[in-house]
Amino acid sequence: MSERKMRLLDPVAQADSQEQPLAPRSGDLSNKVVGFLGNGWKSLEVLYPALQALVAQRYRLARVVAAQKRDISQAPEPEVLQKLSDACDVVVNGLGN
Questions:
Q1: What is the pLDDT of residues 32-59, one digit of tens each?
Q2: Which class for 36: exposed (0-12), middle (13-18), buried (19 or more C-beta within 10 A)?
Q3: In this structure, what is the dihedral angle of CA atoms 43, 45, 50, 53, given to the nearest 10 degrees?
């Protein structure tokens, strides 16, 4: 009897392990416009208001700008990123899963 063989394929991609520098930090958030970009996860509906309140307690913010992705599985739309870029000094990009 001939020996039967099975070929196994691993569909997992190799991780890119290159180190990336952190984005520059803005320091004190007083008088800054802070943006919050949501991605549609329900947990961010709870987390973001709590985080906004915490940041507002610590710093005197100029303003808060909220934005939401249209599709949870896709990158933010260019117009959403442009709005945040134009209006905000700092943006919190939440994952929330």
A1: 999 999 988 888 888 889 999 999 899 9
A2: buried
A3: 160
